[in-house]
Design goal:
CATH superfamily: Winged helix-like DNA-binding domain superfamily/Winged helix DNA-binding domain
Distance between the termini: 28 Å
CATH topology: Arc Repressor Mutant, subunit A
Number of helices: 3
CATH class: Mainly Alpha
Keywords: DNA-binding, Phosphoprotein, Two-component regulatory system
Domain OmpR/PhoB-type: 1-98
Organism: Nocardioides aquiterrae
InterPro entries: OmpR/PhoB-type_DNA-bd, Sig_transdc_resp-reg_C-effctor, WalR-like, WH-like_DNA-bd_sf
Protein name: OmpR/PhoB-type domain-containing protein
Number of domains: 1
Number of strands: 6
Structural class: alpha+beta
Strand order of the largest sheet: 1-2-3-4
CATH architecture: Orthogonal Bundle
Radius of gyration: 13 Å
Shape: globular
Length: 103
Amino acid sequence: MIEVQDIRLDPESRRAWHGEEEVVLSRKEFDLVLALMERAGTIVTRDELMREVWHTNFWTSSKTIDVHLGWVRRKLGDDSRHPRLITTIRGQGLRFETEGHTL
């Protein structure tokens, strides 16, 4: 079980919870959150995410990560304008925050 802030992931059963409520994530959404939560507090580059989540070295679309990230943020209750879970570090990548805060 991986737990960061009030998000829990069980990689074995591929289940996710926000607090006590289970959140249904698609396979790619789960893999994206897992890749970020496994390295919570550190920046994960978009290239790393494309390799780990989409298993490709090339970009299928410049918006692939952004679209999936939008779905994940909605499901986890994270406001993209004032994120407390997943922050975008411009020009570097994404970071799953270990403590809730806003930019």
